[in-house]
Amino acid sequence: MAPASLLLTRVAAATVAVACVVALGAMAQQLSPTFYDASCPNLQSIVRSGMAAAVQQEPRMGASILRLFFHDCFVQGCDASVLLDDSATLTGEKNAAPNANSLRGFEVIDAIKSQVEAACPGTVSCADILALAARDGVNLLSGPTWAVQLGRRDTRTASQSAANSNLPSPSSSAAALVSAFASKGLDSRDLVALSGAHTIGAARCASFRSRIYNDSNINAGFAAKRKQICGPQSGGTDGNLAPLDAMSSVKFDNGYFRDLVSQFGLLHSDQELFGAGVVDSVTARYARNGAAFSSDFVTAIVKMGNISPLTGSSGEIRANCRKPN
Ligand code: HEM
Ligand SMILES: *[C@@H]1O[C@H](CO)[C@@H](O)[C@H](O)[C@H]1NC(C)=O
Predict the structure, then answer these.
(1) pLDDT tens track for 53-98
(2) Position in ligand 1 atom list of the atom nearest CA 207
(3) Which residues line the annotated binding site?
(4) Where would a tag sit more exposed on the chain, N or C end, judged by fewer CB atoms within 10 A?
(5) 110-169: per-residue pLDDT in tens?
(6) What is the spatial distance between Cα 14 and Cα 318, in angstroms, rounded to a whole number?
(7) Atom 2 in ligand 2: residue holding the nearest Cα
(8) Ligand 2, atom 1, residue with closest C-alpha
C-alpha cells in the first residue's frame, strides 16, 4: 500500500475508533426499562407491594413519594441525593428550606430497600427504587402507569445549597417556574404536566398562607374556607394541612387543572399556571382533557427521570439509602 493511502486508512480507522468510544459513552448514559430483568427479576413486584401496603395505610403516601422523586431529580439529577441523612461528614438536603418539616416517606423507601436487598443484595440503586416507587404511587391512586427507565446509580454526595436554589418556591411567578424547569431541560408543557402532580397530596399552611390572605386571583369562598385552618400570622397553624387539589386529593386525575381555571389553586405557584398568560392554554387543555394530561404527564416524568443520572461505574449501589457505603 502506498504511504499516502496507508495514512488515510489509519486516519479512517482512528475516526471509526473515536466514533465507537463516543457511541459507547453515550450508551453508558442510556437507562433501560429492562436493566434489572436478569439481576433482580422480582424488583418491580417488591416495590409494587411495598407501595401498595404504604398507600393502603395512608393514601397520601403515594403523593409524598412522588414528591421525593421530584426533589431528588431537580438536585444533582436523579441520584438519590435527597435520601441521604445529615452526618458528621455530610450535609444532606433534608434540611434545605423546601424540604425541612415537609418531605416525607423516607421510611417507606427504607422498608422497600430492605426487601430489595434481601432478594438481590448490592444490585439495585436507591435512585431506581425511588423512580419505581413514584410510578407505583401514582398508579395506586388511579393514575397512569409507565415503563420506568432504570440503571441509575447512587451519589456519594448531596447539596443543600443546590436544593435551596434549584427547587422552585411556592411564591414563584410563572416565568420563574418556566425558567427553573428549562434549566433542567424541561419545557413549559413539561412544567404544566408535571405540576399536575399536585392533583394528589397536601400542603402546609406555611406554604399557602400568603396566597389565601394576599392574592387577589383566588375564589373568595375558597380563601375564606382555608383561612379557617390557617391563621394570618406564622405560628401555631403553620403545620395545618389542606389538599392541593380541592376536588380529589387522593385521586390522580385532572381535578387540579379544573381547580386552576376556577381560581381554586392552593399555592401561589399553582395559580400562576392559569391567569398569568404564560401557560394558560396548556392548563386549560388539561382541564378539558384528562387523557391529554395523563399522556403528557407520563412523557414529562420519564424526561424528568432522565435528568443527569449516574451510570456505568459512576456513583455506587448504596446498601442503606440514608448513607453512602
Ligand atoms: C412547579 C413547581 C412546584 C412547586 C413550587 C411546588 C411546591 C410544592 C409545595 C410548597 C408543596 C407543599 C409542601 C408543604 O407545605 O409541606 C408541594 C407538595 C407536593 N408536590 Fe410540589 N411543587 C412543584 C412541582 C412539583 C412536581 C413537578 C411534582 C412531582 C412531579 C410535585 C409533587 C408534589 C406532591 C405530590 C406534593 C404533596 C406531597 C405530600 O402530600 O406529601 N410538585 N409542592
Ligand atoms: C400580606 O401583605 C402584607 C403587605 O405586604 C404583609 O404585611 C403581610 O405580612 C402579608 N400577609 C401574609 C399572610 O402573607
Answers:
(1) 999 999 999 999 999 999 999 999 999 999 999 999 999 999 999 9
(2) 15
(3) 72, 75, 77, 79, 81, 93, 168, 198-199, 245, 253
(4) N
(5) 999 999 999 999 999 999 999 999 999 999 999 999 999 999 999 999 999 999 999 999
(6) 38
(7) 214
(8) 214
Each residue's pLDDT tens digit, 244-296: 999 999 999 999 999 999 999 999 999 999 999 999 999 999 999 999 999 99
Q: How many Å apart are CA 228 and CA 224, to the nearest integer?
A: 7
**The listed CATH number (1.10.420.10, 1.20.120.1560, 3.40.309.10, 1.10.10.10) that belongs to domain 174-304:** 1.10.420.10
Express as a percent the part of the chain with pLDDT over 90: 91
User: Yes or no: is domain 42-166 CATH 1.10.520.10?
Assistant: yes
pLDDT-derived band at 202 (thresholds 50, 70, 90) equals: very high
Q: Which amino acid is at 307?
A: I
Closest-CA residue to 202 (of 144, 164, 245): 245
pLDDT in tens, 36-54: 999 999 999 999 999 999 9
The whole-angstrom separation of Cα 303 and Cα 291 is 19
User: Ligand 1 pocket by C-beta < 6 Å: which residues?
Assistant: 60, 63-64, 66-67, 70, 102, 104, 168-170, 172, 177, 194-195, 197-198, 200-204, 207, 244, 267, 269
Within the chain, all domains assigned CATH 1.10.420.10 are found at: 174-304
Q: Where in the chain is the domain with CATH 1.10.520.10?
A: 42-166
Across-strand partners of 150?
Answer: 32
Distance separating alpha carbons of residues 221 and 214, to the nearest angstrom: 14
Instruction: Round to whole Å and give the CA distance between 14 and 161.
Output: 43
Overall pTM surpassing 0.85 (yes/no): yes
Q: What number does the ligand 1 atom closest to the CA of 101 have?
A: 16
